[in-house]
Amino acid sequence: MKKYKFRLLKLSFIIIILSLIGTLYIKNIYANNSETSFQNPNISENIDNDNGIDFTYLDFVKIQNDQYTHNQLPNQENTNWLRCTDFSFNLPDNSIINGIKVQIDDYSGIFNVILAQDIYLVLNEIKIGIDKESGSTIGTSDTDTYRVYGSSTDLWNTELTQNDIESSTFGIQIFYHNPSIYLTQDVFVDNIQIKIYYSISEPEPEPEPEINIDFIIIFSLLGIFSIMILILLFSILLIKK
What we know:
Oligomer: single chain
Structural class: alpha+beta
Low-confidence stretches: 20-31
Number of strands: 11
Number of helices: 3
Strand content: 25-35%
CATH topology of the largest domain: Jelly Rolls
Distance between the termini: 10 Å
């Protein structure tokens, strides 16, 4: 008799575990969080910024290889916008965008005065969202490390869709400022990359007439837990005997 009691108790625990797994699966079926790798741009270009100074060697920003997109920036001047787009993102169907992270490998000349002045996301040749930079110095040497903007939950005050992210016009643009009164300073940009954080929303099936899917799920779970409680009570009664 004790042998059967033990087996029944073991079976009860197995049912409990399976019920919990089923509940977690139902809860998370629409929340599969993931992320892309950091992607490099395919397009880089100068965009006018009130007659700022152009960057040269624009292709060098497309990969981190210690070759630099360059700007020789006179004192008290701004660069033109350095715009990087077409990051070749290919997200799964029904992706919901949760966050955007941008990282930039750049540095300036001998004196630590060059400021990364403004940085925006861009789509369809238009700045979007908020400026993530208020003017911070960028350092004076290339250590192959990146300055980072955004995060896994930061949308830059945008509501971008999967199609927006996959567009060849999606990317970022940045300009730099030389606040020095006397010195011309160099700006070197080695690489700019973007990573996208997303979740996948499975399309909801078309409901059958007058059938509420949430109602069915709730009562299915109630049925599972009711059976679980009954088995536990029955097991306790057998053990006491």
